[in-house]
Amino acid sequence: MVQFPGLEGVVAAETAISLVDGQQGMLIYRGHWAKDLAVYNSFEEVAYLLWYGKFPSANEYEAFITKFKKYRVLGVEEKKVLESLPLQLDVMSALRTVISSMSHTFTAWPPTVDDAIRITAMAPTIIANLNRRNEGVEFVEPHPDLNHVANYLYMLKGEIPQKAHVAAMNAYAILTMEHGMNASTFSSRVVVSTQSDIVSAICAAIGAMKGPLHGGAPSEVMTMLNGIGSKENAEQWMREHLEKGNRLMGFGHRIYKTRDPRAEALKTVTGRLASEDPWLDLAVYVEELAIKILEEYKPGRRLYTNVEFFAAAVLRSVEMPSTLFTPTFTSSRLVGWTAHILEQSQNNRIYRPQSEYVGEMPI
Ligand code: CMC
Q1: Contact by Cβ (8 Å): 188, 340
Q2: Architecture of domain 14-211+322-346 in CATH?
Q3: ipTM
Q4: Whose CA is nearest to atom 41 of ligand 1?
Q5: Fold identical between 14-211+322-346 and 217-317?
Q6: Is residue 252 lining ligand 1, measured as CB closer than 6 Å?
Q7: Looking at ligand 1, which atom is closest to the CA of residue 252?
């Protein structure tokens, strides 16, 4: 018998990057509450914290920001690859391909913080401009005076974003930056444990992130809420959905058996953004009702909203197209992946679990 299906409960590595406590609903990044960092710090400060294990001095921060600005700008070769991709290709696959095409320009082994900054800084430029290309509008270069998060919104629309949108996206990006040994982070650690390069590890993580049970959920939350449509329809819709054996997207988590602290923090952020929005009102209503209905259909499973449920609300409020929900999640999770890649490479042992053979034996 398989002892740990899905490796549930298996501790495969020591980490100093984050603590995810699913019983108490706690998320800590290097000794700091993620929910506080999301409100009081910038994306760049928290990225620095995750990579270096401390906050930067003023001089360190300045040098760090200079690198971010430089790496955000794509070179001629990267732009050529981006332009050459089929328009039908989804953004996650396109992002993976553009990053993959640059692997010869990164350190072979061991990966460096500079590699991590470069991949993280360039991702929003790639994603925003892939989207612009799909919309048939011109490439927008990063704005030298805007920070990481504001630049992403700027490149998407080609105009300076509203402060409230930047603050909401900053909170979203920090809360989704890191989350322990999830499927994509584990994938990246497995690849780098073979002493393969950082780009291969990131490409594997992007592949894992794409799936609807992981990073693909927020656009499915939008689809679900759009399908429900109104408070009157909510109960019947959810019951029919569950009776067909389907899952309610944005609910349940392998680790959290109480409310996901990221969902709580994002709910507050969305409340500040657009308290009058009927869609948000519906989301809050559906959350409360779904928790009760899930307890009825799946007693004792302790299914609550996960980060994706209110992530959908934040992304919708800043007018993010739903095709970019997962790529946007990816652009912030790059910080966590690269922090784990660095940590794995510094104390490495190749991952090699076992499987149990249940096939036939030769006669
Ligand atoms: N709706 C209905 N039932 C559910 C749900 C849900 N969203 N989630 C779990 N269950 C049920 C499941 O059917 C199973 O029931 P039973 O015991 O009768 O077979 C039980 O709860 C345990 O489910 P599981 O699949 O063994 O739990 P897991 O820990 O393997 O799955 C999960 C975790 C997130 C994949 C799952 O809860 C799910 O599919 N949720 C919906 C998709 C979603 O919102 N994904 C985003 C996850 S958060 C992002 C991240 O951090 O990666």
Answers
A1: yes
A2: Orthogonal Bundle (1.10)
A3: 0.96
A4: 249
A5: no
A6: yes
A7: 37
The neighbour count for residue 54, using CB atoms within 10 Å, is 11
Mutational test site, ligand 1, from 223, 238, 251, 287, max ligand atoms within 8 Å of CB: 251
Pair of tokens at residue 279: 């869609």
Residue 253 catalytic?
yes
Contact 233, 336 (CB under 8 A): no
**Which stretches does DSSP call E strand in 178-329?**
none
Instruction: Return the structure tokens found at 351.
Output: 């991952």
Annotated catalytic residue, options 148, 165, 253, 340: 253
* Structure tokens given for 237: 């819709």
Pairing of strands 18-21, 26-29: antiparallel
Nearest to 202 by CA among 220, 218, 214, 190: 190
Q: What is the DSSP letter of 318?
A: T
Contacts of 129 (CB under 8 A, 6+ apart): 74, 82, 139, 140, 155
Domain extents for the chain?
Answer: 14-211+322-346, 217-317
CATH no., domain 217-317: 1.10.230.10
Q: Is 302 in the pocket of ligand 1 (CB under 6 A)?
A: no
Regarding the beta carbon of 257 and ligand 1, being less than 6 Å apart is answered no
Strand order in the sheet with 32-33: 18-21, 26-29, 32-33
C-beta of 344 in contact with ligand 1 (< 6 A): no
* Dist CA 267 CA 139 (whole Å): 33
Tell me how far apart the alpha carbons of residues 228 and 277 are, in angstroms, rounded to a whole number: 16
Q: 3-state SS of the chain: helix, strand, coil percent to 5?
A: 60, 5, 35
Does the annotation mark 276 as catalytic?
no
Mean pLDDT of residues grouped by 10 in the chain (363 residues)? 89 96 94 95 98 98 97 97 96 98 94 98 98 97 98 97 93 96 97 98 97 82 92 96 95 90 88 73 92 96 92 89 94 98 97 94 95
Task: Output DSSP code: residue 251.
Answer: B
Q: Hunting for tokens 């009058």 — which residue is that?
A: 276
